[in-house]
Amino acid sequence: MRDGVWRVDVEIARDPVTGRRRRVSRTIHGTREDAEIALARLKVADHEKRLPSGGTNARSVAAAFQLYQQAVDAGLIELAPSTIATVRSASKVMAAVELPGGRRFGKIRLSRLTWQDIEYLYATMRAGGKSPAYIRRCATVLARALDLARKRGLIDSNPAKDATRPRTTRTKPFAPTGDEVRAVLADVQRRDPEIGDAGTILASTGMRRGEFLALRWSDVNLDQSELHVAAAISDGGPGLGLVHKATKRSDWRDVPLTAAATQAFKRQAERRTGLLGRPPEHEEYVFPRGIDGRQPMRPDDLTDGWAATRGSSPITLLHLRHYTATAMLDAGESYRTVADILGNSEATLRLHYDGRTDVGKRKAIAALELS
Questions:
Q1: Rounded Cα–Cα distance for residues 91 and 146 (Å)
Q2: Is domain 178-358 classified as CATH 1.10.443.10?
Q3: pTM
Q4: Three-class DSSP category at 2
Q5: Which of 67, 169, 200, 369 sits in a 20 to 30 Å window from 320, CA-based?
């Protein structure tokens, strides 16, 4: 086209209605060799049927974000409600970032986007006060949006794969002791017995808050002292509301119940029977919103109820899960067993919990004793 600027194109299938010839073109800035490489990639994309069959306006990064969100909204890409909210906010934030030289990231043409631009994006966000953890979440959204654009034939490769993401520093999660958990549960039980029983079940099973709120009476087997966990309640925010979805790992697990957890379930069944004038039905939620038991409690309502009844204790519902994991590991249980109970992968458990100091590490260090 002119010095340092090339156009490459390939012919795709004719228009099925008019029979007219159609081409897909790319503008390349660089050498002739760069243009030949781009042409080869375009031919490969055509061979793999990744080129669009019709026209599209998705040529900028902002348009790629929009394309990704449309795919999510249409159900072509399945994400948790909280993740959908992250996609929307992260896309908006990244598109508005102004890179060195005055370029707005969202307005960069996909054909000109490089991994250097993406690393400038991360650096600018970091300089603007965004945490490394937040930038990494944004990076995931960007990588997925660009990968969808690649699949749709809008770009030949995903430059986000070559960009280096900010590193994050893992911190040791706070895990209260057994005495601290028993003390806060006793305080909560005095102020609100129902919230106290909820806390007892969470501390005795290690369930996530959303999994706990998704429990129906059909999931509770008091005769066998066992719990079936296969769903979770998530708040998708305005326009979506509460969603009954699969667990975080889209899996199910059966969790044995302690005597304390079994008694907590029995007390809740008695409460529900007193309110309804009959035993709760199988499909009713164990800890519902309202009297009839057909609507799940909002996650924030449970959190607020716990915060209002725990007094001066700093222990949160998430800390109860940390306690469960750490207590079982300190008792010498294997990571595999604890991961199965918590619904984690073993690798994730090892990343977040290193609580076997009372058994495994102390036993290993004892072998090094010199006196």
A1: 12
A2: yes
A3: 0.70
A4: strand
A5: 169
